[in-house]
Amino acid sequence: PGHGGPDPGAIGIKGLRETDVVLDISLKVAQLLRSKGVRVSLTRKIDVDLDLPPRVTLANKVGANAFVSIHANATRTSRRDVNGIETFYFSGPRGLRLARNIQRELLRVTPKTSDRGVRRSRFFVIRRTTMPAVLVETGFITGKIDGPRLSTSSYRDKISFAIAKGILNYLRGKS
User: What is the pTM of this model?
Assistant: First the structure.
């Protein structure tokens, strides 16, 4: 889960905090993956601050097969019309495959959400890890469609299921 502690990440509609949304989603993803026999390491399990380098160090140290950083997007302006899901990867065919698997599953469970696509980026945590890595933006907490959805536990359940399924598909070699 991205952010945490004194870094709440983005603040959305009605004070919705990115850190709370992504921690909930991440804990659910971990639980779903563990129920399928996947060994999961989380960079944080509670609302604490953890800098970027220690997140990367942890992932590299445990020898993970994949690194997934979970976030909720926001606009810096009052543009509530900006909504959608996007997944970033840094490089390589395995990173791209992981990103595509997660993005595809997210779009299946979020009808009427804009597909902002799978794109390359240079975010620190996906650039510095030694395994295929992605950064998932689960929607815009500032968006008039995504914000209210992300504020509900039932919607976060759907998002969690989709991310877990995308990771499982990747681990099983699906493209």
Answer: 0.95
Residues of the chain with pLDDT > 70: what percent?
A: 100
List, in sequence order, every beta strand (DSSP E) within the chain. Answer: 67-73, 85-89, 115-120, 133-140
User: For residues 74 and 142, is the Cβ–Cβ distance under 8 A?
Assistant: yes
For residue 21 the two structure tokens come to 């949304």
| Phi/psi of residue 120, nearest 5 degrees | -80, 145
Please name which of 45, 170, 21 lies closest in space to residue 100, comparing C-alpha atoms: 170
Closest among 137, 7, 4 to 69, alpha carbons compared: 137
Burial (0-12, 13-18, 19+ Cβ within 10 Å), 143: buried
Tokens of 160: 């969690």
